[in-house]
Amino acid sequence: QVQLVESGGGLVQPGGSLRLSCVASGSIIGITAMGWYRQAPGKQRELVATITPSDSTSNSDSVKGRFTISRDNAKNTVYLQMNSLKPEDTAVYYCRFSTVLTTFWGQGTQVTVSS
Description:
Elements: E1 3-7, E2 10-12, E3 18-25, E4 31-39, E5 46-51, E6 57-59, E7 67-72, E8 77-82, E9 91-99, E10 103-105, E11 109-113
Parallel strand pairs: 2-11
Antiparallel strand pairs: 1-3, 3-8, 4-5, 4-9, 5-6, 7-8, 9-10, 9-11
């Protein structure tokens, strides 16, 4: 059974940095993309960044130039480096692994940006 476990969230001041990690346990065959999403209170879940097996990346406009997605295939892990954090980045962050057949989600990790 595949599980995705996120870590690295927490409380940070505006302008600070955090690095999120998402580790997949179990074997996942046929990954087409890995990504990070977030959901703020009262808002819909939104895409933050994605990365493909060929290392093609895409970021939402709201995080371009501040967030960087990367991966380590050997460790079945995807990362999100978040710099210059703003209060509006406050949300629960979820990782997602997509395959040709299905999608796996993590349980989420809280990121709070506040002074």
